[in-house]
Design a protein that fits this description.
InterPro entries: Chromo-like_dom_sf (IPR016197), Chromo_domain (IPR023780), SH3_Tf2-1 (IPR056924). It is built from four helices and eight strands; from the N terminus they run ααββββββββαα. It is α+β, with helices and mostly antiparallel strands. It folds into three domains: about 50 residues, no CATH class; about 60 residues, no CATH class; about 50 residues, OB fold (Dihydrolipoamide Acetyltransferase, E2P), CATH 2.40.50. A five-stranded antiparallel β-sheet has the order 4-3-2-1-5, with no helix packed on it. It has a three-stranded antiparallel β-sheet with strand order 6-7-8. The longest helix has about 35 residues. It starts with a helix and ends in a 26-residue tail after the last helix.
């Protein structure tokens, strides 16, 4: 069915091909002949545009297949399908939700998903709306550290990993790399030693500082090293 027939309910009237020389009037004959040439060129342009649109659409298609039991993410339409996930902000909502397991395959390009209970949408989706889950789906996040009533972390130092000295405004300060309890090593932070001792008076920093192998003696200077005057550095 053509778009014309879908809109008006009847097929469009056919324009017969004009035979050159059918009209005794020369101007009418040339006008009808040019009309046929124009119609032929329009059909050619429409065919080329249709092929171009098909090539662009095919370049974005993905030849992806899933198996039963695979976990996939589902892309939901913005401002719709609220029964699957409640969105606090439609503008800043996620593009994909899940993961959801695949129950079975429907045809060649559709899959039925196991959606949460209470979802009032059809569970069959096109493959273009799905994205495969990467990584271990059975991984679980570690237990969160305890929180105060205000939502602040209750953390205590577990050990001192390293120490360092830094200079600020002409004075030297000591910092400690603190490994906190119930937190991974990647979350260790550098803290001021004096402030750390004030916050945790029972913490013995000297016993927890790792001892480095070697002496503290430095090689003797064979020549005098000139240093700039401090008053010109301020």
């Amino acid at each position: 069915m053509s778009p014309f027939q879908a809109l008006y309910g009847r097929p469009p009237s056919m324009i017969p091909h004009y035979q050159l020389g059918s009209s005794p009037v020369n101007e009418v004959d040339q006008n009808l002949a040019s009309r046929d040439d124009l119609l032929h060129q329009l059909k050619l342009n429409l065919h080329q545009a249709s092929n171009r649109m098909k090539q662009i659409a095919d370049s974005k298609r993905r030849d992806i297949e899933f198996n039963e039991g695979d976990l996939v993410f589902l892309r939901l339409h913005p401002y719709h399908q609220q029964t699957v996930f409640k969105r606090a902000s439609q503008k800043l909502a996620h593009r994909f939700y899940g993961p959801f397991p695949i129950e079975k395959r429907i045809g060649k390009v559709a899959y039925q998903l196991q959606l949460p209970a209470g979802s009032r949408i059809h569970p069959v989706f096109h493959v273009s709306l799905l994205k495969k889950t990467i990584g271990d789906s059975n991984a679980r996040c570690p237990t969160l550290p305890p929180l105060t009533d205000d939502g602040a972390l209750i953390i205590e130092p577990a050990e001192i990993i390293d120490t360092r000295w830094f200079k600020k405004e002409g004075k030297f300060f000591e910092e400690c790399l603190v490994k906190w309890k119930n937190l991974p090593v990647e979350d260790a932070t550098w803290e001021n030693a004096a402030e750390l001792h004030d916050r945790f008076p029972d913490l013995n920093l000297e016993d927890k500082v790792p001892v480095k192998v070697g002496g503290i003696d430095k090689p003797r200077r064979t020549h005098r090293v000139s240093r700039p005057n401090q008053k010109y550095l301020d």
